[in-house]
Write the C-alpha cells for this entry.
Amino acid sequence: MLTGRRAGPVLALTLAMLTLGGCRWFVPAGSYQKDGLSFDHLRGWTVKKDLQQKDVRTVIVEGPYHALFVISVFGARVDVPLETFAKSMARVRSETTKKKLTVAGLNLGAEGDAMPFLPTERSIAGQNVRGLDQHFIATILKVPIAHTVELFSIERALRTVIVMDQVANRDRLKVEEGFQKIFDTVAIGP
C-alpha cells in the first residue's frame, strides 16, 4: 500500500491515465484530394465513390455507424436550388431504401413518411451556412430507426456545392466530430 509522499504522484498519474483513457483520440486518417476537391477526414471514414456524370461530380464518404457524407459539385454556373435538390434526394433515398431492403421478392423494410424539411445552420469552411434538415424513419425488420439528414449549399469557384450528412439519430453524437472535420476542411479549386 502506498502512503505519504509516494501516494500523491501515483494518484496523479492514475487520474491522468483514466482521464486520457476516456478520451477518444481521433487523428485525421488523411486528406482526400482529386481534381480540385479536397477535405480531411478522421480515422474510420472512407471515400467510397467519386463519380462524374454530365454536370455533377458526387463524392460519397462513409463513416462509422453507417454515417454518410455526400459532396455534390455542379458544373460552373449550373443553378441548383437547395430545396429542389433536397426533395429529389428524399424521393430517391426512399426508393433506394426500399430496393435495398427487398431480397428475393421479400420486403424487409422501407422508409416511412419523412417530416418536412426544416431550416438549420452549420459551420462550413469557417462560415456559418444555412441549410435544411429532415427527419425520417427507416423501418428494418419491423424495427423503426429514426434518422436525420442535413443539406447545405455553398458557392465555390463559380460552382454550386451541396454537402449532405446522414446518420441514425442514436448514432449522431458518435459521428458528429467526423462530419464536422469534413465540413471544416472541404475546399473546391478551379
